[in-house]
Design brief:
heterodimer, A: mainly alpha, ABC transporter involved in vitamin B12 uptake, BtuC, about 75% helix, B: Rossmann fold, Rossmann fold, 21 strands, about 30% helix
Amino acid sequence: MKSRVAPVLVVFVLVFAGFAALLPGERAFLSFGNLRLILLQSVPLVIGGLGMMLVMAGRGADLGAGSAVTLAGALAAMLLAAGMPLWGVFPVLLLGGIATGMLNGGVVKVAGGRVMAVTFVTGAVFRALAGLLPGDGAPPPLFQTAMALFPPFPWPWFAAGIWLALAVTLGTGGALRYTLWGHHLLAIGSNEEAARLCGVRVERTRFYAMVAAGMLYALAGGLQWGAKGSVEPENAPWLTLDLLAAALLGGAVMEGGRAPVRGVVCGAVTVALVRNGVALAGGHRTVADLSIALLALGMLGIRTRAKSGSGG
Amino acid sequence: MMTTRSGGLFAPRLRPAGFQALEAGCRVAGQRILQGVNLEVNPGEVHVLLGGAGAGKSALLALAGGRLRADGGGLFFDHARYRPTSPADARAAGIGALWQRPGPGEAAAGNAQRPTAAATVALGGGGWFRFRGLEREAASFLKALGWGDFDPMAPLRELDAFARWRVGLARVLFGRPRLLLLDEPAWALPPGERDAFRELVGRLAYRRLAILYATRYLEEAVAVGHRASVMEGGRLVGVTVMTDQSPAVLAPYLRPPEVPGRGPRVLRRRRLLLTLHQRTPEAEPVTLTVHEGEVFGLAGMPGAGRRALLRRIAGLERGEEPRGCWRADRQVAVAGLPMLFAGRDVVENVTLPRLGDFTRLGFLSRERQRMAAWHWLSGVELRRAGPGDPVERLDPGQRLKLELARMFLCRSRLLLFYEPFAGLEGPMRLWLGGLIDAMARAGKGMLLAASSPGELLPLCDTIALLRDHRIAAVRPAAAWNARELLP
């Protein structure tokens, strides 16, 4: 476990030190407010990245993750605009996440386990749906509070979103470590045939993983909309890149069998760090996209090389 | 003037070249499969690698052919350091290879883009700009090899398995390699064709090709080789020049593995565990049955269909092969196939089939899981591995013990073994043989696939010989002799 987290920690430290050197001064990168903002920006990435990790643990990758997150944000905006009370929005969001996960899982089951192909197509559908929903309108105060930079009492120091991300991280780690489903999911990713032979219900386990991922995307979508106040379906592919990069940086692999929860959290914070640093330096968004893509590719290369070096 | 390959039929593309391995080593998934191998193959020499299953012959060829990477020592080809990172590198350097899996016929048939035999062979020439010319050249090359019994321009899918095999071999030779790697090449050939193949190997060597030839059969080594190196457990244990005395010198190294014979087994109740009916137009109808307490052997060379049969019985494979229908006990456990969970620890690997037994209110108790794993691992005497060790650190014997522990935990009545003795040292072989016998006495039904008669005859009650994915014959073990079970 230690060796899986170590590379992302090195990347994190290098990126952090790089931006700290490039953007000096109390009010810039190293300011308390900015560091807190980075943490806040990582919240949807941590929660969504853990969803991506669950899909990858069973082999494959969710290429429609960003679209599912965007759809959840659009759904939250629409429900509130339609006059739904706030207490009803989050349960509906989670139900929506379950529905998108069930759709993904069901189609993957029919398509014989082709996760990437299926999620690429369903992702396009989710993105189109998000575009159709009226996603405008400012989030209500509770959403804003959940992702506020300086939250009021009773959230000293950190906003509710950060505590929520922490709870989701612990919950996901616990589910993978202490439940039958978690062990079965990792076994499927490690050796699907052997898992089948050991009596694991492969399709059902993968289906539940996609449903769980759908719920996490929905949660991430709601929080992201709360922070940004707008839904941008055209940016969904870049959000997918962020989530995929967070998982890859953290040590998840598309071959499955790995669920490095701590690594993915570090990966998500690193991605948020890059976005924040590039924006602060006045760089264009594409610079951040490119940097994140290169970081993920570099990490993939290092891990592949390490694997072939030890594995022949 | 264009020189055709059929003109200088087997002349290497460039000057003849030799191959050396110096202290070469290799790991696969953390497991050391080759260690400190020193070997030299000169131009015009057929150097035979001899050894049983799991000795490291195929691994050494894979190292030379760019399928594996050396992690120690060095390889040299044509007096220069040679570091292939892929089979394409090896081809570019002038090394042609005929692999055991996928065999030449399968490799040729996988070439869906070029449907004719000649076009498939022409791919070995490596040219794209004058492909039509190469195709015509390939057609004459096939005829020059003496394989005019099929039309070179016929679609590949219309050729039989043996013709496809020859197309695969011709493709390798068409590239005019300087070093030829042959991994158990003769097993797929009909017995009548083996002498012709050996003669072809001799002609290739006469044309100054260096040939590295892996086989497990002493007779074959004596028939084709100039020198022989014996391998065991990933190491090279001896080299000898082939002389009249060589069979006597080499035989002790290749003696059949010691497996304890079975004593009389008394069974009160023999319940039928597996039935397999083979009804095909090409072969005699056969019914294969496995009862409780019975050890049923599956003999045949690699590629004969033993692995496919076991996978199908285990429910891991669907398809036409092996033809027939079967009905098995639902609880089946397999050992010998790659059935471990990479990246997971020993405890997880053993207990996965019955994880539900260690949960309370849906949550897993790691302590109970560990205790159960310890119990079952003690049963198979897996002492050296710690419960938290990842399976990659285990040696072949330990891996097999882990699979056996899982088998016991599954409480399956029908156990399937695929080459369980491969790569095991002497004492471990004895231990496993005794264990199989003890399990049979305890009423387990077993299917044991092994290519060595020395592993099957002492243990099995009944043996079926498989050829070309079909059951060729089924007899009680006492009615077979070792020679009949060799292909």
